[in-house]
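Task 17 of the worksheet. Students: predict the tertiary structure of the chain below and write it out as structure tokens. Keep your answer in the requested format; marks are given for formatting as well as content.
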Amino acid sequence: MSDVQAIVLAAGQASRFRTEKTKLVEQICGQELIIYVTKLLESLSVPTTVVVGYQKELLMSVINQYHQNNITFINQDNRHGTGHALKCTREQWKSKYILVLNGDIPLLKPSLIEALYLEHTKTDSIFSFVTAHHNAPSSSYGRVIQDKHGIRIVEAHEFTMDPQEHCCINAGVYIINREFLEHEIDNLEHNAQTKELYIVDLIRRANNDGCKITTISVPFDQVRGVNTLEELWIAEQIKRSELVRYWMDLGVRFMSAHDTHLDLSVRIGTASYIGADAHLLGNTILENHCHIAPFSIIENSVIGAGSRVHGFSVIKNAQIGPNCDIGPFAHVQNTTIGHSSVVGNFVQTKQSHIGSNTKAKHHAYLGDAFIGNKVNIGAGTITCNHDGVTKHATTILDNAYIGSNNSLVAPIVIGANAFTAAGSVITKDVPDNALAIGRAHQINKLSYSNKINRNKNHTIGNDDQLVANAEKISKETIDSV
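Model answer:
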């Protein structure tokens, strides 16, 4: 296809979305609509020009993130239809054949473009386009009408015939000989109703001139466009089903495939298990034999081989080593974790490193922490990493044992093999092999309840007096400490 160049129509406002932004930056399985088309053309090595208009800066920025400024952009300042958009690109026409397609066809396959090109060149056609069958009465697709007068396309707003009888639709994918296009583009006539110029008018002209026109028919889902949020949802379900089937063929089991959320760039190792309603997003990689429980969300993270993510856990921008246990209800963000470690239920980690064979099993917050190997983090432990202005680091060296309900006030270092007592507030560094105790000294006041009960009996029926006496007893107790 070295003699083909592509024009992608992407200037429209997409008013039916009602989202106040161009539909072409909406995502399907983690990738923008327009990028499905531009990547397809890149895979075929077809030079591409994109016609932009509405929110052009946003659209150009998204495209350049994927294509490193090797896409040509043409601005359609005043949007007067598809024919006008194509006309705006006239100075870019260099190749023998011009491939024109809409930017909102995310399910298009490279093989379809190749098939259209082969049919076009084999039949020596002037104009070739893709059709499909779709009989929805509310369809926004133009209808392909073939009769004794030849072939023509009736736009949706002009179509008044029976959609069941005329169910062949125009998919919006064309190959046109450049010589014909250069001759006819200025002859396009404004539509009587919309006052716009339409590409399909070129088909009428080619038909009237007796030019060879070729069509190929494909399943509708392959050329399904996206004009509403409902159509976006449908297209995403189809794409997601394709991804799930692909990974199933490679040995991945899905507990409930229809409600798994799976992005295009996710990679899953063989013999892995994906629970119901799991979200695997972005550039996530699951290595072999991973077990992802229901309702987990994993984004841009690596889960090591044999690791288990228990239900309702959220993992983002993390590197988790092999044979780890995460969750349930864990929140792991911007964290690296070594092999065979446990980050258990209701544990949050952020901007931290956790070594191998380390366990934080219950109700902890570990932020801005460097934690070594074989460390035990007791239930209720938090790293107090923020002083109201600046964040500070906590370092816990190998084999340390942090007791339950500890507050580690950063910056602080807990030495190797050190212990901290349960209920401690640790504000100073703890040397290697030491035990740190940072809690108030316990005092037992004997017969205290007898004194309370005696006063309570004297004030039955007088709540105000009861409260006053209790406060008096408490003050006397505190003063005596």
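Marker's comment: DSSP finds nine helices and 37 strands in the chain. The first strand starts at residue 4 and ends at 10.
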